[in-house]
């Protein structure tokens, strides 16, 4: 049925195109015969030729006359705009009826310009009609005439395949939304007690943490219509279109109540008003959302769920009670949740029975749920490429590295470049070995990936949400391990440490300006110049003198860490040489092997 409609639609399109081309062809065809194919002569000359019997045929039109002379030459003469074109000839003593040897056809047709004008109008009308039909066929039949209609996709909740038990992790977030599901299933239980369910629920979290997934699970559990859209779909080049789409969306949701409206990336239309980043029609769209949400009464079983990873830019009016009165934070999964997510996404894949999911979960610290799903998918692809039937730890390790750093790339490096990279990565690993609160080394690699020539990976023993000042200094120090190794071994430095320096500088500045970890300045928070500029202020909340002190403190932290890294590597230069030599030979050293090399050389064995 759908295929026949598509074929019919295509046939109609071809028909309209064919009609337009026919009209253009006819206009050209009718126009060409009236064009002067010979020279133009004065009307007096044409009259003289008639009197001299030099005219073989004559056709008189309203404003001109075409003639063919006896010598077969075609000529034309302009008549002006006479009331009776034939009178021009009769007034000059020519009795047209007496010229038996001349074919005279007095044609009362329109002029050439009139014909062309009419045909041009016909072509324009036909083209416009065809364009209108095309616009109407766009966007599910709406097109340009449905600018104000919502583009939200409707899913029937009972047909949603996603349920809470199909979502690993997010235990705290799921507990928050259980009562919403219960309200949508049994609204009278709450309304009879005078309870008011939250009108809006804001899901906040980094990308890939499952905001959209959780919203769909709410609809799937409650079995109600689910209107899904995004903030960007309210935007249009026409002023007022966004507000109209908001009205249309809420109108449809009320008619389908109880129902759920899900707006993904709501920050696209709900940023703080009054700043240059907002256009007038974006603010108009936001105002309409505020009005629609505030217009709900307690008996309207419509719940608005919105998702964003930028809650700091949302307008405060949107977050007040009565609109989005509940905020649910979805953070990156912890160790136990990562393990659950990995097991869930591996349930439909042939996994090695000896696979240690706990180790993989510790290896993937900082990964979102989407990242973990992508790791297992990449591992499955890699297993197939290797012509294996079981996904093992090697494939998962490679996939995790690929997700973070990109695929391994072929690189033609000289022996000198390979040596520099080997010492650089060995410096990172060895420095971290001698620092307090340092995570164990998981793998050292000099295989180039993405923009990096190598990498040193760590395997945290547990998730950390709180970092001490000692931990920060440790992280900065082993970031400088690569640069320190280059300086000690080659008495020179390369640009390979640029990313390390950037990250170390950012961390040191946060220690001083945000975390209050400077002994000289004390526990004071200093405004971020970039954020101030973002909100239209563009000014720091501290003086230039204070700025110089901050810069000095940041510099002291960085220099202290760099000098510490230099000292560690100088004291353990033989171990550094041994690790670098193994990297040059094998390109990859696993964490256990690295520890054996260090421990054996420290013990003198």
List keywords for this structure.
single chain, 605 residues, alpha/beta, Signal recognition particle alu RNA binding heterodimer, srp9/1, Rossmann fold, 5 domains, five-stranded mixed β-sheet, 21 helices, 14 strands, elongated
Detailed description of the structure:
The protein has helices at residues 2-31, 43-51, 87-90, 112-137, 171-185, 187-191, 211-222, 241-255, 280-294, 335-345, 357-363, 369-385, 393-405, 415-433, 469-479, 481-490, 498-513, 529-534, 544-571, 573-586, 591-602; strands at residues 39-40, 55-60, 64-69, 74-78, 103-106, 153-156, 200-204, 225-230, 259-264, 302-308, 324-329, 441-445, 455-458, 588-590. Helix 1 packs antiparallel against helix 4 (112-137), helix 8 runs parallel beside helix 9 and helix 14 (415-433) crosses helix 20 (573-586). With 605 residues, it is of the alpha/beta class. It contains 21 helices and 14 strands. The radius of gyration is 40 Å and the shape is elongated. A 6-stranded mixed sheet has the order 6-8-9-10-7-11, sandwiched between helices. A 5-stranded mixed sheet has the order 1-4-3-2-5, with helices on one face. Strands 13-12-14 form a 3-stranded antiparallel sheet.
């Amino acid at each position: 049925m759908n295929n026949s409609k598509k074929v019919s639609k295509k046939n109609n399109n071809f028909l309209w195109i064919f009609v337009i081309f026919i009209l253009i062809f006819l206009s050209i065809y009718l126009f060409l015969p009236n064009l002067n194919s010979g020279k133009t002569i004065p009307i007096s000359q044409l009259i003289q030729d008639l009197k001299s019997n030099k005219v073989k045929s004559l056709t008189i039109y309203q404003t001109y006359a075409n003639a063919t002379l006896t010598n077969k030459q075609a000529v034309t003469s302009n008549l002006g705009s006479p009331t009776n074109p034939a009178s021009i000839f009769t007034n000059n003593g020519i009795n047209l009826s007496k010229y038996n040897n001349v074919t005279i056809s007095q044609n009362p047709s329109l002029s050439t310009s009139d014909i062309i004008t009419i045909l041009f109008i016909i072509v324009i009308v036909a083209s416009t009609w065809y364009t209108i039909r095309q616009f109407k066929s766009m966007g599910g039949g709406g097109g340009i005439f449905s600018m104000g209609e919502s583009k939200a996709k409707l899913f029937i909740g009972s047909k949603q395949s996603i349920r809470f038990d199909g979502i690993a992790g997010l235990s705290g977030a799921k507990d928050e939304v259980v009562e919403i599901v219960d309200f949508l299933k049994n609204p009278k239980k709450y309304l009879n007690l005078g309870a008011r369910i939250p009108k809006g629920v804001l899901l906040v979290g980094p990308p890939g943490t499952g905001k959209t997934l959780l919203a769909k699970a709410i609809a799937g559990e409650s079995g109600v219509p689910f209107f899904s859209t995004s903030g960007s779909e309210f935007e249009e080049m026409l002023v007022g279109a966004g507000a109209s789409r908001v009205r249309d969306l809420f109108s449809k949701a009320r008619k389908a109540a109880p129902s759920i409206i899900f707006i993904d990336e709501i920050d696209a239309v709900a940023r703080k008003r009054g700043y240059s980043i907002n256009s007038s029609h974006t603010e108009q769209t936001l105002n309409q959302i505020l009005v629609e949400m505030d217009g709900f009464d307690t008996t309207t079983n419509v719940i608005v769920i919105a998702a964003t990873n930028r809650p700091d830019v949302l307008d405060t009016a949107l977050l007040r009670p009565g609109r989005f009165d509940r905020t649910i934070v979805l953070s990156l999964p912890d160790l136990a949740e990562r393990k659950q997510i990995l097991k869930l996404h591996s349930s439909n894949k042939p996994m090695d029975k000896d696979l240690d999911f706990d180790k993989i979960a510790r290896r993937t610290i900082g990964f979102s749920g989407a990242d973990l799903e992508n790791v297992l998918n990449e591992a499955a692809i890699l297993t197939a490429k290797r012509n294996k039937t079981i996904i093992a730890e090697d494939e998962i390790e490679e996939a995790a590295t690929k997700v973070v750093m990109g695929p391994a790339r072929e690189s033609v490096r000289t022996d000198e470049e390979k040596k520099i990279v080997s010492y650089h990565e060995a410096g990172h690993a060895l420095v971290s070995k001698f620092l307090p609160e340092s995570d164990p080394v998981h793998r050292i690699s000099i295989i180039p990936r993405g923009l990096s020539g190598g990498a040193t990976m760590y395997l945290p023993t547990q998730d950390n949400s709180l970092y001490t000042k000692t931990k920060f200094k440790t992280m900065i120090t082993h970031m400088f391990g690569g640069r320190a190794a280059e300086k000690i071994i080659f008495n020179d430095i390369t640009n390979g440490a640029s990313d390390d320096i950037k990250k170390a500088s950012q961390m040191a500045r946060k220690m001083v300006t945000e975390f209050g970890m400077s002994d000289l300045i004390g526990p004071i928070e200093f405004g971020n110049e970039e954020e101030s500029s973002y909100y239209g202020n563009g000014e720091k909340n501290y003086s230039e003198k204070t700025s110089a002190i901050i810069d000095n403190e940041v510099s002291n932290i960085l220099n202290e860490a760099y000098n510490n890294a230099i000292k560690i590597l100088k004291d353990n230069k033989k171990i550094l040489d041994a690790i670098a030599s193994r990297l040059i030979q094998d390109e990859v050293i696993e964490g256990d092997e690295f520890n054996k090399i260090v421990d054996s050389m420290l013990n003198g064995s």
